[in-house]
Amino acid sequence: MGTEPGVVHRAHLFHIGGAPTIESACEHLVSVPDGALAVDAGGRIVYSGPIADLPEGQREWAQLDHRGGFILPGFVDTHIHFPQTYATDAYGGGQLLEWLENCIFPAEARYRDPAFARRAAIDFCRRRIAAGTTAAMVFGSAFPDAQDALFTETERVGLRMVSGRGIQTVGSAAAADLVTDIDTAIARSAAEIDRWHGRELVDVAVVPRFSLSVTPDTFVALGELYDAVRDRGVYFHSHLNENARPGTGEVDATKAAYGTDSYLDTYDGRFLPGSARGGASLLGRRSILAHAVHCTDAELARMAQTGTSIAHCPTSQLFLGSGTMPWRRTVAAGVTVALGTDIGAGDEWLIPQVASDCFGVHMSEPGDAGVSLHPAELLFTATLAGARALDREADFGNLDVGKDADFVVIDPQGWEPLAATLEFGIRADDTETATAQTLFALLMGIREPAIAQVWVRGRRVVA
Ligand code: GUN
Ligand code: ZN
Questions:
Q1: Which residue ranges does the record assign to the Amidohydrolase-related domain (predicted)?
Q2: What atom in ligand 1 is closest to the CA of residue 342?
Q3: Domain final residue, candidates 364, 387, 408
């Protein structure tokens, strides 16, 4: 029996307890104003609830008093680009395909320089800590040295991450530095898996940039690689149905390039219909596809069937004019929807700010599609849904006993507008409404200065 003492954190606890779907997130909202989170020496949550009910043995433990503040599960970012750390707010790009050519491929090519990439890895991790993003699916650089720098720095600071080098086997002159032949692409991904997958806090994904940056032959080879490593828990990550500009946009270009009616089929080993050619499916419980703005019902059903999740990136969609993922239709299909910053098309590192855009864009959907998301649904999407998308719900995503202690401490005094809203803006007399108002104000109003502490597996994360 572990006799080593742990630590008790005191604050107002907010989380989505249990393992609900989005439909029942509201009933699973846990709010404990005078709360205690007891974390054992191994970094596990052993008590989560009112301080008054703290078990005898844990009353002797050291207490960290965050009262006046809040403890929330760490935020989960299911889609963020490491090689776009400095590429946010790029003016003059246009929509997706032009923006990639004009702004992004040149920005990503700079990571060829290992010293530059090391500096970017440090800044990338520092910004994640500032934003309280304890776990993330990180779209990686094309350059192995840059990926090594990212994994090394992530482990050094103690954040959770899944990442994989961005694979491109075709591209224009602007992308030339990022493109390799297929054999090199496979060899580099395989080496990355061998070196970094299955460690305490980091894992590896196979990451073709999107279907237009590879070929059917690449997908055959990626399918073979993925089949060989899937059982080791390796992830798959890419983009799907983001830009639907008629004729010249990503969706039409993809369908034309692969001769298919379904973009998703290109990731499902079902390309070049009518011919014998196809490959292993890349979909599954460890697959996350970003955007999914323009999916057919059949594509959503197939994602739900395979356990493939969506990284919903409303901030990015506003910036690139990609449209709005239909919330009700997507959720009704039974697909897990989590949030992604999509740095650098998105320019917010803070998942709660992405949740704020999520609230705004879905409130603005036309007619019956419009929805006013409950703060519990936003908290679910920002935390537990992300853990589920990463297939790690058993380990983190909420403050339930038995999970690893991955959490953020919010001190409203760090951001005066938030402190003032919480002090003067909560209007309801009944507890349930006041709780919802408090959580909503908290999620919408958090900015980086209010994120006082970040903990992963019971260890404080500092840059
Ligand atoms: N599709 C292919 N590459 C990218 C990228 O870097 N960002 C976004 N938002 N979409 C993509
Ligand atoms: Zn992206």
A1: 70-436
A2: 9
A3: 364
